[in-house]
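Supplementary Methods. Inverse-folding protocol.

Structures were first reduced to a discrete structure-token string of length 475. This string, shown here, constituted the complete conditioning input.
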């Protein structure tokens, strides 16, 4: 017969009740532990957040203090410093997006031919239009702010268009990408023409340019992680981010101080090798001041490092993709070269204050010869250390040479024509970069051949700058 369940104390129901009570006790303990853990996490998060916030606010305060020191806030130079940081932030986002599309997508031969074609088509109009930027800004007294804003607006529009074609195999990719590069170079010309008008009396022009350049380094460094995170979702999102940066930069450029547009006392400039301070007349009888021989020498010497920069940008991008060093990923190698160049550029800007008492003619000559030496070593001992050293020395030489050129223009060109002089000199340097890039695209992807050709070009240019041109001037 079936038995009735035992309901006496100590039967099965009693242990179940005891187990339930134990479960409730354990649950309360777990809940207490979870609440304590949550409070600990929240406390840690609050402490970390406060520490991060304090560090961020301290960094922002220090950056603002540096940007506004020595009268920069009163003169409006701080606005240009912030604007240049935004320019570098947008350019960094574009570079990160294009790193996996233009240079690292598709067949190498196809990409090289497309880039070479559009770089060649871009070089001719840029060579014709760019030398007119300085005189155009000097002739029209209300042009600089709008010209700077236009370079931002053009890049913003092109970035928005690029975002739509970057993930598709579209023929619009390369012209839009090169249009962004050209607009970036045009910004450099217009910005150089604006710096003399915003320089406070308490600092020199070379120091003002150093501050602006350092802001660009900081802006690019801060923007790179944000752009990289956006690019992780897709290359088009980094371009959308760049579009937002350039749109904000367009508004900020138009809101620059009105003195940026002033051209009072400026005269057209013709680059020539005549005695310092000499003047002449153009066809219309207007006064024309010629740039002295010291500035022409510094400008010629700067063309070497700028040529090498353009060459390495194009040649190494394809070389390291097609023929990477054994055991290394192409993207890592490109990052090492770019990181070395960025570190060298930053070191050069920091060292500018130490080297300002050195003769700028010596500095530009040493920079040119250092580039020649490191390219020769790179061709002979090609490898990861040589690549990092190549990027480091190239960035350092370019930075120091440019600062020395700025100092030479400041001391050798009358104040009334410095804006035009900067526009002309920067235009020449941008063209040297384009020529170097075109040479880098056209060479075979063989390290010894490519770097050997670059070394030969730099050697010939060094002889011309250091030997032939000075001898001709003496005659």
């Amino acid at each position: 017969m079936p038995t009735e369940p035992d309901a006496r104390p100590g039967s099965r129901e009693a242990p179940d009740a005891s187990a339930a009570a134990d479960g409730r006790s354990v649950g309360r303990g777990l809940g207490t532990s979870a609440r304590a853990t949550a409070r600990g996490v929240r406390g840690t998060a609050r402490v970390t957040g406060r520490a991060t916030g304090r560090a961020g606010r301290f960094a922002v305060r220090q950056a603002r203090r540096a940007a506004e020191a020595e009268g920069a806030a009163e003169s409006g130079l701080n606005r240009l410093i912030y604007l240049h940081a935004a320019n570098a932030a947008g350019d960094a986002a574009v570079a990160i997006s294009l790193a996996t599309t233009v240079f690292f997508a598709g067949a190498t031969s196809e990409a090289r031919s497309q880039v070479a074609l559009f770089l060649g088509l871009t070089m001719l109009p840029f060579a014709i239009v760019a030398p007119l930027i300085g005189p155009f800004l000097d002739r029209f007294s209300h042009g600089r702010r709008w010209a700077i804003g236009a370079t931002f607006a053009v890049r913003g529009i092109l970035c928005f268009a690029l975002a739509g074609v970057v993930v598709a195999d579209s023929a619009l990719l390369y012209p839009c990408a090169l249009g962004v590069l050209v607009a970036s170079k045009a910004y450099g010309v217009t910005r150089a023409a604006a710096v003399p008008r915003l320089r406070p009396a308490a600092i020199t022009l070379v120091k003002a340019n150093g501050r602006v350049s350092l802001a660009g380094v900081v802006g690019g460094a801060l923007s790179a992680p944000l752009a990289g995170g956006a690019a992780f979702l897709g290359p088009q999102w980094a371009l959308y981010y760049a579009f937002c940066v350039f749109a904000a930069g367009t508004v900020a450029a138009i809101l620059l101080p009105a003195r940026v547009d002033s051209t009072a006392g400026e005269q057209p400039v013709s680059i020539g090798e005549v005695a310092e301070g000499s003047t002449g007349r153009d066809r219309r009888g207007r006064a024309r001041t010629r740039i002295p021989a010291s500035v022409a020498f510094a400008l010629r010497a700067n063309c070497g490092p700028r040529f090498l920069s353009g060459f390495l940008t194009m040649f190494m991008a394809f070389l390291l993709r097609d023929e990477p060093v054994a055991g290394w990923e192409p993207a890592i190698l490109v990052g090492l070269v770019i990181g070395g160049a960025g570190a060298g550029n930053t070191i050069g800007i920091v060292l500018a204050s130490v080297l300002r008492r050195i003769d700028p003619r010596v500095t530009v000559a040493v920079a040119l010869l250092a580039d020649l030496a490191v390219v020769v070593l790179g061709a002979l001992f090609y490898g990861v250390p040589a690549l990092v050293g190549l990027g480091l020395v190239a960035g350092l030489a370019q930075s120091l040479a440019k600062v020395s050129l700025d100092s030479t223009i400041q001391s050798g060109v009358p104040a009334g024509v410095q804006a035009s002089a900067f526009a002309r000199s920067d235009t020449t340097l941008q063209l040297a970069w384009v020529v170097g890039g075109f040479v880098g695209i056209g060479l075979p992807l063989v390290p010894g051949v490519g770097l050997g050709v670059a070394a030969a070009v730099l050697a010939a240019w060094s002889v011309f700058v250091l030997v032939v041109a000075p001898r001709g001037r003496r005659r």
